[in-house]
Amino acid sequence: MILFILGLAPGVAIAWYVYNKDRWNKEPSRLIFWSFALGVLISFPAGIFELIVEPLLPFKTKSNLVSLFLYSLLGVALIEEGLKYYVIYKFLYPKEEFDEPFDGIVYSVMVGMGFATLENILYVISGGYLVGITRAFLAVPAHFVLALFMGYSFGLAKFGINPEKHLLQALYYPVFWHALYDFLIFTEKWYFSIFILVIVYGVGRWMWKRGQKLIIFTTEEKNDKSSSL
Fold first, then answer.
1. pLDDT tens-digit profile of 7-21?
2. pLDDT tens digits, one per residue of 51-66
3. Which class for 119: exposed (0-12), middle (13-18), buried (19 or more C-beta within 10 A)?
4. Which among 24, 81, 117, 203 has the fewest CB atoms less than 10 Å away?
5. Transmembrane segments in this chain: where (predicted)?
6. Could you tell me if residue 188 is left (phi over 0), alpha (psi between -120 and 50 degrees) or otherwise beta?
7. Exposed (0-12), middle (13-18) or buried (19+): which is 56, by Cβ within 10 Å?
8. Does the pTM of the predicted model rise above 0.85?
């Protein structure tokens, strides 16, 4: 039971934190729940696709660093981020409730944390406390960073200019950073750890600051509208 809670807590905590950052016009609780649930559900086909794709890839995953990165890119990152992208674009992006730029981050984080939470529970239950503690500070926050990239781009796509460009960015930025993160993990070289921390906390902090600007933009826009009435 303790291992289950340890696996569950990081993703739920991050989802709760981001939900509470959405101070203007909070998203309906039903959509928050279903966004999280969609993230959980797509983890199953993601695992199946990864098992199918791995033996079909035309290179040995650990034969050299180039092959290892390509495996991280095509065998893991593209599948997982592609499924997240699909459910957000198909089921959440068209919703009327998606009515301000920061909503892209809210929904993307809910989907990402749903995916990360189930994945984390399975790893922690099988791996124990050390795995749970390590993943709480690395793997789950990494999924959060990827969700920030995706959600930020979805928000710009829906409410900014050049939506086609931002819709592409909503996929290829998360795929690239996910592939780089997994590549550094798969090398199993301890001295790459510093780069993993940079991705999770350096890049994540930078992206979160950019995401918060969407809140400021929305607040200023609504204040301007209210003052003109």
1. 999 999 999 999 988
2. 999 888 887 666 788 8
3. buried
4. 24
5. 31-53, 65-85, 105-125, 137-157, 190-208
6. left
7. exposed
8. yes
